[in-house]
Amino acid sequence: MQIGAGMIAALIGANGAGKSTFLRTISGLLKPASGEIIYNENNVLKFEAHRIVRIGIVLVPEGRRIFSGLTVYENLLMGGYTRIRDRIKISESIEKVLELFPVIRERLKQKGGTLSGGEQQMLAIGRALISEPTLLLLDEPSLGLAPIAVDLVFDKIEQINQNGTTVLLVEQNARRALEVASAGYILRNGEIVLHGASGDLITNPIVVKSYLGG
Amino acid sequence: MKTKAGGAIAAIIFDRGRLLPFTLILLSVLFPFIVRDDYWTRIGVLVLLYYIVAVGYNALLNHTGQFDSAIAAYFSISAYVSALLDVHTGWSFWVTLPLAASSACVIAVLVGSVTLRFSGDYLAIVTLAFSEINRLIIRNWIGVTRGPLGLPGISDISFLSYEFGLSDYYFFCLLVAVLAALVYRRLAVSRIGLGWASVKENVIASAATGNNVSGYKLTSILFCSCLVGISGAIYPHFINFLDPSVASLDLFFGILIMVILGGGNLIGLFLSVLIFTLIPEVFRGLLVYRMLMLGCVLVALMNIRPEGFQYGQLFYIKIPSLFNRRRDNEIETGFQRAERIGFEPVASIAERPHGEVLLTVEGLSKDFGGLKALSKVGLKVHAAEIVSLIGPNGAGKTTLFNLVTGLSQVTEGSVKFMNTEISDLPPYKICRLGIARTFQNLNLMENLSVYENVMVSRLPRQSSKWNGKEITDQELCLECLNFVGLNGSEGVITKSLPYGDKRRLELARALAAEPKLILVDEPTAGMNQVEVEYFISLLKKIRESGIGVFCIEHNMTVAMGISDRIMVLDYGVKIAEGTAKEISENQRVIEAYLGRQKC
Amino acid sequence: MVLLQQLLNGLAVGSIYSLLSLGFTLVYGVLYFMNMPHGEILMVGTFIGYVLYASGVPFGFALILAMIAAAFVGVSVEKIAYRRLRNARRLAPLLSALGVVFALQNGAMAIWGTEIRSFPSPAFFSKIFDIYGFRIPSTIAFILGLNLFLMICLQVFFKRHPIGISIRAVSDDIETAKLMGINTNLAISVTFAVGSALAAASGIMLAVRYGPIHPLMGFSLMLKSFAICVLGGIGNIYGAVVGSFILGIAEVIAVGYISPAYKDAIGFAVLIVTLVFLPTGIFRGRTEVRL
C-alpha cells in the first residue's frame, strides 16, 4: 500500500479480513513476518510502538479504548505524552480539540468510564489529535455511533485532513469511507484484492455488491 | 541447542518404552550391593524419600499447574505427627503412618480450598504464609515439639518385632517409590490425569466443558499431600531424630527445583532428584552459597528453558488404535481429507422434540462498575433452530454469552434453561445441564492432542446412546472429530493445527458434551470462503439433529443465510428481532449497523 | 491513657505498613503480578542503609541513598527476572520471583552473615516530646512525619507528574498506553523503583524503632503486605492504606494484651479471615472469575 501526504485513504473489508491487524502492525503493536514499512524514507518496521507515535503516526484503536480510570482531561493529556514538557503547546492543542468536540468540554473532570459510548469515541479521536500527528490511523471510528454522530465524525475527518493531516481510515461502513476518501483499498483474508481511486471503487459493481449492500 | 545426536539420545532416554525404567529399577535394587558403603546407601534412602515427594509434587505442579508452596509444611506436619505418636504412645509405625499422612492431607486440602476461587498467585502466597506460620508453631510450641532441641530417640520401623536396619530402609523406600511412580503413571493416563492436565492447560475451557475444576485441584492436592505425608512419616524413623529444619523453606525450594527440572516425566524427575541430592554431597560448601546458586538457577531456568527435562510432547491419553493414522510430515487439513474420501457427517447426535423452548432470557442486565454492558435484554431460543445475534463491536454480544454460560455474573434479570434458573450456577453445572459453547478467541488446550481436547468434554459424563445404540466415550470423541472433518488429525498437537481446523475442533469439543443448545461465538472469523461454507453446512446438520444453535456472527451473508431468526444488539439493548428479510429492512438496524448513505 | 498510647503506636506501625503495601499494590495494579521479592528488596535497602549509617554517613543521607539503592535493585529484578516472561504462562514469572527471593536472601546472608544486628539509634531520636500529657517519642514523630511526607509526594506524583499519570494509564490499559507514545517499559520500571524505594524507607523506619535486622526479615513483611492488600482489595490504593492501619493497630493491641510471640500470626489470621469471608476485600479489588 502507498499513501501520499495529505490524502485520505480508506481500507475496507469484511470483519476478520485483517484490517485491525494491519493498523496494529503499522503502529508497532504487532511484528510482521516479513515486509517493510517505510515512512518518510525511513524503514520503521522495527520501531517500538511508542517510537512510532513520536515520529508522527498515531492510531485511534478500535472500540474506544479510553482510560476509564483517568479523567477526560488526563486522557487528553496522555494523548500529548510525547510533547508533555511543552505545557503551552499542550494547552493549545487541548483547546483546539475541545473546539472540535465541544461535547467533551463539560466533562473534563469526569472519569473516562462514565462517558457514554459516543462521547468516548469523540474523546478517543480527540486524544489522538493532541500530539498533532502527520499520519492519523482510524480503526472503525463510526462503529457504534448514532447516525448524526457518524455525519459529524466524517465531517471532522475531512476537516482534520484539510488541516494537513494524512488519514488512513479503516471502516466497515464502506460507503461513507469511500465518499470521504480519495483512494481505497479492499482487504480480504489478509490480502489487498482491489485498489484504486475511491470514485472508481464506489461504482465498481463487485465492490458495490459485496460491501456496500447493494 | 538441539542437535540431531542430542535429540536421538534424549529420545532414547525419555522414550516411553519399558527398557529404561526397568534398567533403572534394576540398578537401584543392586545399588547397595555395588557400593557396599553405608554412607552412600544412606544417601540412596534420602534420594528415594525425596523422589516420593517429587512424584507427588510433580502431579500438583507440573501436571495440574497448581503452585503450592507449603510442601515442606505438609512434610513436617506428617513427620512430627509420626514422631510424636512414636515417642508418646509407642504405637507401631504401620498405625502411625496412615495417621501422619492423613493429617498432612487434611491440612493441605483445607489450606488449598481457601484459595480455590482465586487465581494461582493467591495459592502461591497463601501457602507461603501457611508455611511460615507452620514453621513458627513448630519452633515455638516447645511444650509439644521441644522446639529447636528436636525430638530424639525415635524408634526404627519394626515389622513383626523385626527392627529395620539400613538396607531394610533402603529397600522399603525403594518399594514405596516404585509404587508411587506406578500409581502416578496409572492416574496420569486416566480420566483424572486428563482432568488435571485440562486445569493446567486452560481452566476456563475445562470449566466450560462441564468439569468441576475445583474438584480436580483438590484431588491433585490430595494425591500430592498423600505422597508427601508418607515420605514425611518415614523420615524421622530413618534418622531417629526430628527437628524444625524439616519445615524450612529451603527444603521446599530444593523440591521445587527438582520437580521443575524433571519436566513432568518420571525418569526426568529421578534424574533431577539424583542431581540435586548429590550436588550438596559433592560440593560440601556453605549452605547459603548453594541456595544463592539455586535461586539464580531457578530464575535462569524460567527465562531460558521452563520445561526442564521434558522432551517432546506430553500426551497423556493414548489415541485408540481404531483411527490411529498419524501424519508427521505434512498436515492435510481435516477438511481436505474429508473432501478426498467423500465422507458424510453423522446424522443425529441428540434427539430433541421440535419447537421446545430451550433458553429463556428475561430482563438481563450487566454492569461493569458504571459501564452498562447490557440493559434488560430478553430472548428465547428453541430446539432445532439457528438464531443469530448481530450488532456492532462492543454491543454486548459476547457479554451475553458469558452471562448465559456462567463465566460472568448477572447484575439483574433471569436466565432459564428449560425451566431451570441458571443465572447463579457456576459454568460447569450449566454445561452439564446441556449448554455448550465455542469462544471468539479460541480456548483450546494447545499443548494437548486434538483427541484429548475433545475427550475433556467427556470427563464429567458417562457413555451414552447414539443413533439408538450404546457408544463409548472414545467412539463418541472420534465420531465428533469425524463429523467436523478432523478425522486423521487425532494425534496432532493442537497448537500446530491450521486456524480453520482449530475452530472446527472447538465445535467438535462442544458437540462431545452432548448439548441441547450450542452457543457459537463468531465461528467463521478469519476463514476463507470454502471453509465458511463447510462450517455453515455443519451448523445446519446440527440444527437438523434437534440441537438449538445460538450464534454470534459478523459475516452478514452467513447470518442472513442460515438463521431462522436474527436479533440485533446495539449498546447493550436489543433493538430488533425477526427474519433475515425483516432485519435487513429495519430502519433502526440499518442506521446502527449496516451503514447509511450520506443524504 | 495507655490505650491511646497504644493507639499512637499502632498508627505508627500502620503508617510504616502502608508505605510497604503501597509498593506491593502498585506493582500488582500495573502488571497484575505479585512481586514476591518485595520483602527482600526492603531487606537489602535496610542493610545498605545500616552499612552506610554505621560507617558514618549522616542518617538522612543514609536513608536517601538506601532508597535509591533499593530502587536500583527493584528495577534490576524486573528487568532480569520478569521482563521476558510478561506473556508467558502464569506460573513462570511466579517461579522466577521465588528464585529471586532465595537469591536475595542467601546473597545477603553470604555478604552480611546470619547474625542479627541492631540498627544504631541516631542521637536526635532519644528525645521524647510531651504534648498535652502524651509522651511521643521522637522516633514515632519522625515515622509519622516521614510517612505523611512520602504519601503527599506520591499523591502529587500520580496526580500531576506526567510519568505518574502515565503509570496510571498503563495500569488501566497497557496497550493503549503504548499508542499514546508512553514508553511502557519505563513506566513499569519507575513503578518498581518507587515501590522499592518506599520499601527501603519502611524497613529503615522499622529498624530504627521496632526491631533488629537480619537477612530473613523481609519475608514475613512481604506476607503481611499481601494480607493487607487482600484485606483492602488487591490493586486498590486506599484499601492498602486502610488495611495497613487496621493491621498495625491490631498487632499492637495483640502484643499488648495477648502475647508478643505470635505477633506475626495476626497478619496470617487476618488473611485467612478475609479470604474466607470477604474475598474481594474492603474496597472491592479486581474480581476474579468464579469457576
Distance between the termini of chain C: 50 Å
| Helix and strand pattern of chain C | HHHHEEHHHHHHH
The tally of structural domains of chain A comes to 2
Structural category of chain A is alpha/beta
| Euclidean distance between termini CA atoms of chain A | 27 Å
Apparent shape of chain A: globular
CATH third-tier fold name of the largest domain in chain A: Rossmann fold
List the strand order in the largest sheet of chain A. 4-5-6-1-7-8
Q: Give the helices and strands of chain A as they follow along the chain.
A: EHEEHEHHHEHEHEEHH
Q: Low-confidence runs of chain C (pLDDT<50, min 5 residues)? A: none
- Could you give the count of β-strands of chain A? 8
What is the C-alpha radius of gyration of chain C, as a whole number of Å?
19 Å
Percent in helix of chain A? 25-40%
Q: Which percent range describes the beta-strand content of chain C?
A: under 5%
Whole-number mean pLDDT of chain A: 84
> Helical region count of chain A?
9
CATH superfamily of the largest domain in chain A: P-loop containing nucleotide triphosphate hydrolases
What is the general shape of chain C? globular
Q: How many structurally independent domains of chain C?
A: 1
